[in-house]
Amino acid sequence: xxxxxxxxxxxxxxxxxxxxxxxxxxxxxxxxxxxxxxxxxxxxxxxxxxxxxxxxxxxxxxxxxxxxxxxxxxxxxxxxxxxxxxxxxxxxxxxxxxxxxxxxxxxxxxxxxxxxxxxxxxxxxxxxxxxxxxxxxxxxxxxxx
Length: 145
Known about the structure:
This protein has 145 residues and is mostly helical.
């Protein structure tokens, strides 16, 4: 009987190895299938279920809290302060824009006056050069017989 059990064990060993490999493969496939589903479920709990539970617990805590309600005056003060700072910033912006425009007008008139003076000097120097060339041409014409 012992010999028959050993013989049966030897015959069953390859089948057991094959079953072991098949089982390992099935477990790995199950893990590949289950991992994304578990992650999706975790995100759903985090995104849908947890906020509801948190809201429920917060509401319950506020209902049973014996301390008086806190003042909500500071958000209004922050709002008014922000509006005042925005208005001041706008006024400074408008004033600087007007000053910049006036400065640019002055600069433009200075530039136009400078160009006009340069044009006048250039015309004078051109006229002098022309008269010198004309005088030399007349002189050369007189020398020619």
